[in-house]
Design goal:
Length: about 160
Amino acid sequence: MVYILEESRILLDRCADLVIVSNTPKGRGIFATKDIPAKTIVDVCPVLVLGIEENTEHVRHTSLYHYTYNWPVKDKDGSIKMGQAVIFGLGSMFNHAIDQNVGWERDTKHLLVTYKALRDIPAGEELCISYGPRLTFKDVDAAEVYTEEDGLDQLNRIQLE
Ligand SMILES: C[S@@+](CC[C@H](N)C(=O)[O-])C[C@H]1O[C@@H](n2cnc3c(N)ncnc32)[C@H](O)[C@@H]1O
């Protein structure tokens, strides 16, 4: 017989009305197949916390790095530093949008991330989170902003060629 302590059991809420689409302009993405009401828990994902060195020496130099989240990590000297964690499951498939419709929360005690609908999400819409202001890729949603300086740069470049 297996004994599981009540306090170590964590409910894995999960929204079933989702599909993964493989060919969006952002790569793979998660879309709603039915209307999802605001505040619905979309998913609860377990995480693997990386050691500070493990991240800086290894993972940072791989494509996995683009899937990691900032996560507070205890360093060798006992101090808390901002490290990285790998999120298992759907959590790693949410793309970025500045007008995100999904919010996320770290549970550092249980090593989980909970994703929740920030507003009503209609069927057919992509579920996106915000990655914050510093992106490591070109945001396909971002409008090209034309300034006079850009025009001058372009002119100078053309003249030099
Ligand atoms: C955590 S993954 C998300 C899943 C990814 N689309 C896939 O197919 O595996 C993060 C990567 O998705 C892409 N991505 C996410 N949001 C994007 C956006 N707004 N514009 C362009 N690419 C995006 C970038 O390549 C980024 O490095």
